[in-house]
Amino acid sequence: MAREELQRLTGDNGNGGPCGQGDCPNVYRTSSGSIVVQGDVSDAFTPPPGEGLVEIPEAVLREAIHALGW
């Protein structure tokens, strides 16, 4: 899936996020309604094969929730 196919919910969505057009932690929505998270790789624990852990600031998650109207 190309990044262009995702709806960016944070940073560059007109809400004045800290990243603007930058490439820092972000939250995206896919066309099927699922969520994709971009962040720093976390080693908090070893996830199952095929899965990964990322860490994002709480403010990024709050911005995504606001953008979704939740």
From TrEMBL:
Region (Disordered): 1-25
UniProt-recorded name of the protein: Uncharacterized protein
Organism: Streptomyces anulatus
